[in-house]
Request: fold
Amino acid sequence: MKRPLTRRHWLTTLGSALAGVMSLALARKAKAAVQKVLASAPAPKGYDPAKHRWLMQIDVDRCIGCGLCVEACKTENHVPPEPTYFRTWVERYIVKKPKPGSDTPRGEVVVDSPNGGMHFSSALVPREEIMRSFFVPKLCNLCEHSPCSQVCPVGATFETPDGVVLVDPKYCIGCGFCVQACPYGCRFLNPITHTAEKCTLCYHRITRGLRPACVEVCPGEARIFGDLKNPVANDPIQRFIATKRVMALKPYLGTGPRVLYAGLDEEVR
Reply:
């Protein structure tokens, strides 16, 4: 999957050691920036969701596994601090070399996401055993045909006209049906409110012209966010689609995800 001289090729050379160290100064600066624009109110008056169509795209080759997106999401959206609750997380895929004498082109695939991907260890697999490694950010896939909304018995989960799947906590009864129905493992029951929770693309931010917190802090610009109905000059969304081999996770499910990826490998699930 990896092309020569790409970031993933560099990661392969170093094994599972984090590349985020080299971008630490830039990453911390980006994180500081998003802390200054925290918002928590609902969509402002005058916002017309029919005039927007939000889309998230992820370039796997650019993700360095720094985990700042996970940290920013937890802070911005008041996600419970326990290391089991995340609206977005980062997975690391380590493809081992085939064993001596094996006729397979690759060995075992090890997948980890310690603390949502904020604290990867370089000691998980010995460097000499690694064929390649890469990071994959995960979040709600904003399905056009969302299984979670179909199983909600009270209509608490719903799709907005601008393409975001949201949960109304005033109606949610905490039955957990949506958590079980989500094929991407993107939902959880908040232990404090006892209602379903998931990524909302930072709806309170994007309806004010701001970017999601995870996009704002990403030092490698691995997360690309935009509005299909309101393209800008040199629009990164359109450029991404035009220049990358774009695909969705689990396309065979027919859910119509609005989170698109470039650089996915066959190991990603």
In short: Confidence is low (pLDDT under 50) at residues 1-23, 29-39. The chain has one domain: 7-262. The CA atoms of residues 98 and 107 lie 4 Å apart. The helical segments are 7-14, 24-35, 68-77, 147-151, 177-181, 203-206, 213-217, 236-243.
